[in-house]
Amino acid sequence: MGKRGRREITRRRRAPLLTPTDLDGEAHRGIAGPMNAILADVFALYLKTKNFHWHMSGPHLPSASR
User: Fold this and answer.
1) Residue 31 · residue 23 · CB < 8 Å
2) Contact 57, 66 (CB under 8 A)
3) Which value, in Å, is the radius of gyration of the alpha carbons in the chain?
4) pTM above threshold 0.90
């Protein structure tokens, strides 16, 4: 790949993601905080559920060690 190709890739990486929306900049900032909190809660719940699943045992569950 030549210089021109590398420059084009760099330009595309730095370009803003243009997503059509009806929201203005202030609305974006107002939504970002609550959405980040929801995302953090969902991710924490996912990790807790995953860890719980791997630590379950008992005669009613199939075991890979049998």
Assistant:
1) yes
2) no
3) 23
4) no
**Tokens describing residue 2:** 């030549």
24 phi, psi to nearest 5 deg: -90, 180
**Residue with token string 């809660």:** 41
From first CA to last CA, the distance across the chain in angstroms is: 54
Sign of CA dihedral 16, 21, 26, 28: negative
Gap between the Cα atoms of 38 and 21, Å rounded: 21
At 14-44, the pLDDT tens digits run: 887 778 888 888 898 899 899 999 999 999 9
